[in-house]
Amino acid sequence: MKNIVRSLEELMNLAPILKAAFPYDISIAICDTEKFLAYYPGDSIDLGIRAGQIIQADEPLYHALKQDEYSVANVPREYYGYEFVGTVLPVHGEDEEVCGAVCIQVRRQTELREIADRMALSLNQANARISQVADGSGLLADYSQKLLIQSDATAYSVRKSSEVLAVLRKVADQTNLLGINAAIEAAHAGERGRGFDVVAKEIRRFSKETEQSAQRIRDTLSEIQSAMQGISQAIGQIASVGQEQAASTHEISSFIEEIRAMSEQLNEFAQKL
């Protein structure tokens, strides 16, 4: 299909209107078969084209004019500092020969894609870290639960030790009573019971030392039992916090995964711009 125009001047007059009507920021160039006639830069895309600038043979525009073909080219950022899409539409005079072209450039949203890529990378890293924290919180809760079981077992052992001390105290009391009875019998025996009196005193001294030792052990066990109760409560709180943290980090991980999916959609959208 021939794109016939009466003159290139008409295109030059129409170009600013087309640019204003276009919903995106674009730049428009009008050329004949050898040079640029006019250039209307955009707000974010300005190729620095000047009226009278010669079209170089290595430019896609040159080949589009020579081949009389509509051309679309992605221009990388290495040339102008940003990526854009350039289109070339050859136009024909009333003799149906190529007399020039309309060139439109639309800047691609490379920055938007880069932001989406960085978002995805950061979210992936954050998700990995949170997964590690969640795993650590789960292990902490497991270890705390094991410690709690061991703490309960220790407290049970302490209680059993208290029962042994009760027996020991009973033995001390019986030994003391035996010593008293021995002393009484030694007194009744008079001179002949003097040796037996010495044994009775030793029995009573041993009984007293046994009672004192039992009391010290009892005090120590009482302190241990009190400490174990505090430790058990603290471990229970740690286990509860660990479980809550594990649940919270899993929820956060789910939120991050949703945001990551949205960043991928954003990237796909940016690819189309």
UniProtKB/TrEMBL annotation:
Pfam families found in the cross-reference section: MCPsignal (PF00015)
Protein name: Uncharacterized protein YukE
High-level lineage: Bacteria, Bacillati, Bacillota, Bacilli, Bacillales
Protein family per UniProt: Belongs to the methyl-accepting chemotaxis (MCP) protein family.
InterPro entries per UniProt: Chemotax_Me-accpt_rcpt, MCPsignal_dom
Domain (Methyl-accepting transducer) ranges: 157-273
SMART domains named in the record: MA
Organism: Paenibacillus silagei
Keywords for the protein's UniProt record, in alphabetical order: Transducer
Key word Ligase present: no
